[in-house]
Amino acid sequence: MEKNKGTLGSALILLAGCFWGSMGIFVRRLGAVGFSSIQIVAIRVTLAALVFCLLLLMKDRSGFRISRKDIPLFLGLGFGSILFFTVCYFTAISIMSLSTAAILLYTSPIWIMLMSVLFFRERLTGRKLLALALAFAGCVLVSGLSGGGVTLPGLLIGLGSGLGYGLYSILGTVALRRYSPYTVTAYTFLLAAVGSWLICRPGEMLGLFAAAENLPALLLLCCLTALVTAVIPFLSYTLGLRSVEASRAGILATVEPLVATLFGVLVFAEPLTLLSGLGMGLILAAVVILNRNPKD
């Protein structure tokens, strides 16, 4: 039974990574309308917050009650993780190459593994270290090897995106010991949404909606963006964290750049280089190594 739970948890983490890998499609579509990266984040997390709150309302209304002592935990999830990592990531993209920003973002499994050893006393096994090395090397190859134009502030911001991204696994694991996945995701995204509206220039964003030639189509695109890149993957990831160690989950989620590369090839006709193909193989190898023995 425990083995089956671990297998299901790993499958949920992989599913989340696959959905996150489609993010570029929606970001490009909304960007073409004129929305900035931060405004796309605000749209995404706000609509996701509404869905998660509705799910919690239907599943268990009592889930809206949280202890006052846990407010800092949820602030950490909403502001310190979701909003912080997104702002850092898009800022990194604006001041350095996309490939370099992506490489720095996918330092997250390293942060997760270090924090898991420190706070959860997880075993740092040779298998995990090998899978981590393969996954990170794969991300580097998939994202590209360009490192030009990297400044110290840019490096710190990029590493910050990886830290914030990894922090969700750590804080989420703690929150799941006390609350349901629906409570965790609802409060996380609700707080992230509040923070995003403080920095997204809402007047300008609402003006783009008012000027849209086909408002129903734009609203549908926004809803799909929230559903596909936030609601489904974060709920899957959070459910997976109930039976998968945070460090293992962080490495499994590196399937995201692999899927993103495939979408780039299939949807945008981007070339698939030999190095990208090799990187995809390394990421798959890391996933296989981690799942050969769920008890490791």
Task: Explain what the structure shows.
This protein is mostly helical and 296 residues long. The protein has one domain (2-125, 150-244). Helix content is 78%, strand content 0%. Helix 6 (108-119) runs antiparallel to helix 12. It is globular, with a radius of gyration of 19 Å. The chain starts with a helix and ends in a 5-residue tail after the last helix.
Strand content: under 5%
Using DSSP, what is the number of strands? 0
- What is the domain tally? 1
Low-confidence stretches: none
Q: What is the averaged pLDDT score?
A: 83
> Shape, please?
globular
**Secondary structural class:** mainly alpha
Number of helices: 14
Instruction: Report the biggest beta sheet as strand number plus sense, adding barrel if it closes.
Output: none
Helix and strand element order? HHHHHHHHHHHHHH
Task: Report the end-to-end length measured between terminal Cα atoms.
Answer: 16 Å
How big is the Rg? 19 Å
Bin the helical content: over 70%
List the helices and strands and how they pair.
Layout lengths: L1 H19 L2 H11 L3 H23 L11 H25 L2 H8 L2 H12 L6 H18 L8 H25 L4 H17 L4 H9 L4 H26 L5 H7 L2 H14 L5 H18 L5
Keywords:
296 residues, mainly alpha
